[in-house]
Design goal:
Largest sheet of chain B: 11 strands, mixed
Number of domains of chain B: 1
Distance between the termini of chain A: 36 Å
Shape of chain A: globular
Structural class of chain B: alpha/beta
Strand content of chain B: over 45%
Structural class of chain A: mainly alpha
Oligomer: heterodimer
Radius of gyration of chain A: 17 Å
Number of strands of chain A: 0
Helix content of chain A: 55-70%
Largest interface: A-B, 35 and 35 residues
Chain lengths: 225, 290
């Protein structure tokens, strides 16, 4: 289990103050709000729950764990394999950019905080995705894999709720109520991800792909995805 | 001894098909020849034909039983040798019937050698309610090889109001080059009211479709033209949703809607556009589509 130091490290890596620019991405929510598909707490909650149950975030978190395990055993080939996989599996150009930009920001930060991780980062044949960068640091800081997965999903949910608070708009209290309601689906998804085989890395991607493609041509927008 | 005979009885009772197609195309002085052609029941491959000159070979695969049931397995193994060019389609829509408890599986392995080009333009798949289906399509591209594929899937016989309420569908498509994935698309739809009605899933629409072109980087202008083809196309019985995006070495189109005529019209337009941009020639729709 986690000791106090591990817990503090988990809080650091999942905090919204982590300077990776997560606040500037909506992952298609901006176009869904514009199209009135998402317009209140209920419709937002449904979307986030479906994403946790069947969507891309489940795959992202599963790839984060694969990056974690590869780092843990020093398998740089596997680390590169899953980083390439993460890039090839992203739904759209914008979502791929998001993963690279956040991954790049996290890499730059970690090169200052933990210079010995340059071996992992330099072994990659292309830009590090955010999920893999997160997996590298979670393993290096010996955060329990289950806690790292919960933290990854929690920080994703927090970012998208705060984007929606600005977009829909919703009150801050409603945002926090929604986050509380997502705790149980996050726990459920997290335990599924921990048991997910490579062959079951699959998702129902139609809604997210179309929303993100629509965002790529949205005329007026606040967010970069 | 007893075990073997009871196995035989079981397989004949269920009469599962294990059909295979193995095709190898080769370039012989600017003519693409089908140099190896093997098909076992229920699959057949029609005689190659050349409606647009000898350099592109058209092949039509036929499923003589009309559809797949649980336990059926179809395997396709296709290779294009250097410089060969081929268009492969199917003679009719493929039906995946309600499952008897077993999964119906289709496995497609494709290898495209350098400077070769394959267009894999199959007709739509109709997934009956209760079907349990898995398709794996894996493409290995050599450097400078190009791939165009599309897949149109209808969930439920929607004309008679059937919906995909029970069953499971998986379609895994992966395109690799020299040990690196260029595009991984692993779609999964566990049937049910919530997912087929959710805006995150099928949004109440029976049809989803993807077109993917992989070979080299596609300019934003071509992406924009593919979007315009959608925006400017005539109205069909209903208007679905569609989008286009760049992938690292190509272009991806997605559709979700209710009209196969609508998505086919758009995809044919994008195919024609890609042919003009990258092959310097117009598209040539096979007669079997009419």
């Amino acid at each position: 289990m986690m000791n106090n130091l591990n817990l503090l490290r988990l809080l650091q890596i999942t905090n919204t103050a982590l300077p990776v620019g997560a606040y500037s991405y909506s992952e298609g929510l901006e176009s869904l709000v514009e199209a009135h598909v998402i317009y209140d707490q209920t419709t937002l909650k449904h979307w986030l729950e479906q994403e946790l149950g069947y969507g891309a975030i489940k795959i992202e978190a599963a790839i984060m764990l694969r990056g974690y395990r590869a780092t843990e055993i020093g398998d740089l080939e596997a680390l590169d394999y899953w980083n390439n996989w993460a890039k090839a599996a992203r739904e759209t150009a914008e979502l791929r950019e998001q993963s690279w930009q956040m991954g790049y920001a996290l890499r730059r930060l970690l090169e200052k905080l933990e210079p010995e991780l340059s071996k992992e980062f330099n072994s990659l044949s292309q830009e590090v995705s955010f999920a893999i960068a997160f997996g590298i640091i979670a393993a290096h800081w010996e955060i329990d894999p289950s806690a790292a997965t919960l933290g990854y999903l929690h920080s994703w949910a927090t970012n998208l709720i705060s984007a929606s608070i600005r977009l829909i708009p919703l009150g801050q209290t409603i945002g926090q109520q929604l986050l509380s309601k997502l705790h149980s689906p996050i726990v459920e998804t997290s335990s599924k991800i921990l048991a997910l085989t490579d062959d079951n890395l699959s998702s129902c991607g139609w809604g997210l792909a179309l929303a993100s493609m629509a965002h790529e041509i949205q005329y007026s927008r606040l967010f970069r995805s | 001894m007893n075990e073997i005979s009871s196995d035989k009885i079981a397989s004949s009772l269920f009469s599962e098909w294990h059909g295979k197609v193995n095709l190898i195309y080769a370039d012989r002085q600017k003519t693409t020849q089908l140099i190896h052609n093997l098909a076992t029941a229920p699959l057949k491959v029609q005689k190659p034909f050349y409606p647009e000159g000898t350099d592109i070979c058209h092949s039509v695969i036929l499923h003589t039983a009309g559809g797949m049931v649980g336990g059926d397995r179809l395997s396709f193994d296709v290779q294009l040798q250097p410089n060969a060019k081929a268009l492969i389609t199917t003679a009719a829509a493929s039906k995946i019937y309600r499952s008897n408890g077993l999964q119906a599986q289709q496995n497609i392995q494709i290898k495209v050698d350098s400077d070769a080009y394959l267009e894999w333009l199959t007709q739509e798949n109709i997934i009956f309610n209760g079907a349990n289906y898995r398709q794996d399509l894996r493409v290995e591209l050599a450097p400078k090889a190009t791939w165009l594929g599309w897949e149109i899937t209808r969930f439920g016989r929607s004309a008679r109001g059937e919906k995909f309420i029970t069953g499971e569908w998986r379609s895994y498509t992966e395109i690799w080059r020299e040990g690196k994935p260029l595009w991984i698309d692993r779609q999964w739809l566990p049937a049910g009211e919530e997912i087929i009605n959710s805006p995150h899933g099928l949004a109440g629409q029976p049809i989803v479709a993807s077109l993917v072109w992989v070979g080299e980087k596609v300019s934003p202008e071509i992406v924009e033209k593919a979007r315009e083809l959608w925006q400017n196309q005539p109205t069909f019985s209903s208007k679905g949703e569609a989008g286009v995006t760049q992938i690292t070495e190509g272009l991806l189109c997605r559709y979700r809607g209710a009209s196969s005529a609508e998505v086919k019209h758009w995809f044919k337009g994008v195919w024609h556009l890609l042919r003009l941009c990258f092959c310097d020639r117009p598209s040539c729709p096979p007669r079997v589509w009419q």
